[in-house]
Write a sequence for this structure.
């Protein structure tokens, strides 16, 4: 019977691994799919968010270009809540734009974040302030 050997990690290796493990937010804004699967995901808040249907996708994004086929991300990024079917980009009378999904509005704080996520400015729906103000605030995007 062979006995396996292992080498203990030094403290700096452990610290480096701890600091980088689970920091999936650096991929926020990526739209990804696996090489052998149809579902398309948005990485948001360091989690894979399934985009449930083409209508939802078209409500949010400019077009279908730029979706990355990336098995590593699909297999390793933690799964989060799916986007709600029919999720939209919405705003009231002010300049703030939100993604409305899962009963919450997620504020998109600036044009750089808006563009990083490949959102479509032509799809922003203006709603009465009373409507946008009645939607609970979720975690900001970006």
């Amino acid at each position: 019977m062979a006995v396996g050997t292992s080498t203990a990690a030094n403290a700096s290796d452990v610290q480096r691994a701890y600091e980088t493990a689970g920091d999936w937010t650096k991929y926020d804004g990526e739209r990804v799919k696996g090489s052998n699967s149809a579902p398309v995901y948005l990485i948001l808040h360091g989690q894979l968010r399934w985009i449930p249907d083409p209508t939802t996708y078209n409500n949010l994004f400019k077009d279908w270009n730029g979706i990355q086929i990336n098995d590593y991300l699909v297999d390793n990024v933690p799964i989060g809540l799916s986007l709600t079917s029919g999720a939209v980009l919405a705003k009231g009378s002010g300049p703030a734009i939100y993604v409305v999904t899962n009963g919450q509005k997620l504020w998109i704080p600036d044009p750089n974040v808006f563009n990083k996520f490949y959102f479509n400015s032509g799809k922003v729906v203006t709603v009465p302030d009373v409507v946008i103000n009645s939607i609970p605030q979720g975690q900001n995007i970006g």
About this structure: The longest strand covers residues 40-44.
